[in-house]
Amino acid sequence: MSRKPIIAGNWKMFKTVSEAASFFADVKGKAEVDGVESVICAPFTALPSLVEAAKGTTIAIGAQNLHFEDNGAFTGEISGVMLKDLGVKYVIIGHSERRAYFAETDEIVSKKVHAAFKNDLTPIVCVGEKLEEREAGETKNVCSVQTVAAFQGLSASQAAEVVVAYEPIWAIGTGKSSTSEDAQDVIGYIRSVIAGLYDDATAAAVRIQYGGSVKPNNVAEYMGQQDIDGALVGGASLEPASYIALIEGAK
């Protein structure tokens, strides 16, 4: 099955509304490459203007989180209903920083995945091991547990729409990165886990990204692997020229 490559920039807690507008103006028309899906996952404050700026382009806009309830007394939270109303297409769920700093559990990730589908948002679900887990030989077990939890209760048709991002936590923002062969080994394993939950056809439809110090000079190496369908990129997505180069490198 042919899976469309997807490059998603995760801006994390960077860029004001005006900075986001300037960035988009610089990449418009240049980060739109046939055969590659371009996504920008921005802070909540920048989403309305980015969605408006992206109209008429092939660049999709995503959020970095959502609450699993549609509304309620959850001060400071943003719901899927709100994101859907904005016109956001994607939402990152279960990023390692959310798990580490904001106590997100596998159960919460599962609830958020269901909330995304309820509101016609496509989840980018992050899985990945810590350095001590990798050194203990637990990488595949950790990724399996997180993947099974994230897909719990999803129909096969929903599962096929999920984007999975394999992000070894020790490689995020450290300058260290998994080799393309190691990333392929783990991502191929994640695909086999999904096949075990559903079937080979469903697993073959799921796009699985690699994340962790991906840059313009190494993105093509990852994209050359059989099961790697794109990248979730942090720091290297913050500069227009770098983001454009990432999209072009994924062709």
Automatic annotation (TrEMBL):
Q: Which catalysed reactions does the entry list for this protein?
A: D-glyceraldehyde 3-phosphate = dihydroxyacetone phosphate
Keyword annotations for this protein, in alphabetical order, are: Cytoplasm, Gluconeogenesis, Glycolysis, Isomerase
From the Swiss-Prot or TrEMBL record, what is one GO molecular function term?
triose-phosphate isomerase activity
Instruction: Please verify whether the record's keywords include Cytoplasm.
Output: yes
Please list which residues make up the signal peptide: none
Its main localization is cytoplasm
Residues of the active site: H95 (electrophile), E167 (proton acceptor)
InterPro entries for the chain: Aldolase_TIM, TIM_sf, TrioseP_Isoase_bac/euk, Triosephosphate_isomerase, Triosephosphate_isomerase_AS
One GO BP annotation of this record: gluconeogenesis
User: CDD domains from the xrefs?
Assistant: TIM
* This enzyme's EC code(s): 5.3.1.1
Q: Where in the cell is it found?
A: Cytoplasm
Family as reported in the entry's similarity comment: Belongs to the triosephosphate isomerase family.
> What is the name listed in the Swiss-Prot or TrEMBL entry for this protein?
Triosephosphate isomerase
